[in-house]
Structure formats: structure tokens, C-alpha cells
Amino acid sequence: MPVYKSPEKIGTFDVVFFLGVLYHMRHPMLASEIMASVTSPGGIAIIEAHVDMLHLERPAIAFYPGGELNGDGSNWCGPNPSAVEGMLKVAGFKRVEVYTTSGMQSVAQVAKAAKLLHTQNPEEILSDRMVFHA
């Protein structure tokens, strides 16, 4: 269903899946707020997303105004894990858990590897996909 719908129009849900959508949003913070508003109290939102700039611990979002990410003009942004976690908390989620999909044990390990492995194609190691439970 369209992301930019209010709970008054669609209701609230115990489980909200937001898989592979966040980086397609022109307004990721607004999308996070709406996602929080349609997640019922005590419910869970499961977010899977492309993340970028893993070498930065400070919240940051890469902006893709064209086809910079996979040649797809519908990809707008690449938040880093700290930015996703921050957006979800500001949106109203009390707790956010972050899971890597790269096989590394933690986000910190991914960030450390990204810092150590600078190559001619840093986007290969400075970006990944991660799952967030909020």
C-alpha cells in the first residue's frame, strides 16, 4: 500500500514490514514517522534497507539525485545505520535493534572493515543491506 497514508485511513498493525523501501523514499523521515504511526503499541516494525557510508559513526544520509545507486533513478537515499536508528527513534519507536546481513557480528565490525578496506570502489564496502527491528 502507499507509504504516505495515515493510521486514520488504513488503521494500525501489530507487525509492519518495510522491506526494501526506505531508500526509495524522497522523504525518509516522514516515511519513518508514518510507519511508527501505523505500528500498534507493543507492535513491531521490521525494516530492511540499503545503507551507505558505513565508515561514519555519526548519522548521515547519502543523496542519490540520479541513478547513482545501481543505475536506478527511483533510489533517493542511502542512510547509514546510525541515521536509520535515529530516524526510527525520533519517529517514536522506543527500541531499535540493528542486524547486519553481511555475516559480520555487529554494525561496529562492518564500520571497522569499511574504514580499513578503502579501495578504488569504496561503495562496494561502504554500503550494505541491514535489517532493523523497531
Keywords:
alpha+beta; globular; Rossmann fold; single chain; 134 residues; 6 strands
Question: Would you mind describing this structure in some detail?
Answer:
The chain is of the alpha+beta class. It contains five helices and six strands. The strands form two sheets. It has a four-stranded mixed sheet. β1, α2 (28-38) and β2 form a beta-alpha-beta unit. α2 crosses α3 (81-91). The mean pLDDT is 83.
Compile the SSE list and pairings.
Layout lengths: L6 H4 L2 E7 L8 H11 E13 L9 E3 L13 E3 L1 H11 L5 E4 L6 H10 L6 H4 L1 E6 L1
Parallel strand pairs: 1-2
Antiparallel strand pairs: 2-6, 3-4, 5-6
Short description:
30% of the residues lie in helices and 27% in strands.
The ordered string of helix (H) and strand (E) elements is HEHEEEHEHHE
Low-confidence residue ranges: none
Overall pLDDT: 83
Helix percentage range: 25-40%
Q: What is the fold-level CATH name, i.e. the topology?
A: Rossmann fold
Quickly name the level 1 CATH class.
Alpha Beta
